[in-house]
Design goal:
Layout (H helix, E strand, L loop, with lengths): L2 E3 L4 H8 L4 E3 H4 L7 E6 L5 H12 L6 E6 L11 H7 E2 L1 H4 L4 E6 L15 H14 E7 L1 H11 L4 E15 L13 E11 L2 H6 L3 E7 L3 E7 L4 E4 L9 H11 L25 H17 L22
Parallel strand pairs: 1-2, 1-4, 3-4, 3-6, 4-5, 6-7, 7-12
Antiparallel strand pairs: 8-9, 8-10, 10-11, 11-12
Amino acid sequence: MPINIPKNLPAGEVLRKEKIFVMEEDRASTQEIRPLNILVFNLMPEKEKTELQLLRLLGNTPLQTNVTFLNTATYTSKNVSKSHLELFYKTFDEIKHRRFDGMIITGAPVERMEFEDVNYWEEITKVMDWAKINVTSSMYICWGAQAALYHLYGIGKFELPKKCSGIYGHVITDLTVDLVRGFSDEFLAPHSRHTDVSLDEIRNHPHLRLLSYSEDAGAFIIQSKDTKNIMITGHLEYDATTLADEYHRDVEKGEPVEIPVNYFPNDDPTNEPKNTWRAHSHLLFYNWLNYYVYQETPYDWHFVEDNKEDEIEYHI
């Protein structure tokens, strides 16, 4: 089934060349079908690259999916054109009256800052609180995961002695959980961050379960026990060359960076890296959309009685 995207979105042409079934909004509106509505709060600086990465994964399932992109109103990105944002993005005030079947909040280049010092922190927390009532299931990626762990569950982050960058091996703690159904006992995934969260705090938290971790990179897949929130501390959505692009960018800036672990063939940055995590990336998103979004969301939100704020459990 297709993924429905805004007309003329640049990522659309790339997705078509990759044989991913995409459908623009005007055609999708003529079909008698209840698609999934997914909100993507894209905080990454290179928004068009992130759009393509996420749409590629959201579009590789049998489910028809409408995607709405959200941008901060309190901060204007410097790495994407104003016209792109005006054409393809909404602000929270424009969508807060709606309900969504799923939501993704991406990473952001602010991880070394205290959460409260991020100039759009109030806006992010407002969206996370709104999602408790208006979104069936939410996925938080990298800094987004750390923000959710902090705001929703009271777990802070700490700075690492050096950047965690590379491809790391991970294990699954419980293969019977639907989110990791079909995963190998061990699998690879990219990480790219300067901060981390405590494994012990996650393991001991009454409302969280640790589904996957790495001996070297720490916690990876964390799920709330009510299954509404999924936190991914790494970047399964990354392309094969994304870490290479980040590494060469940092080298050009003169930053003291090390070669990403287990990434370049023979640890030689002139060699082209391979994508060794693609299958598990698609599997994770497939499982999320199927088991936690499609299977759980109401067919028609209008028939769902509105929840009251005081019925929502705040876990801090």
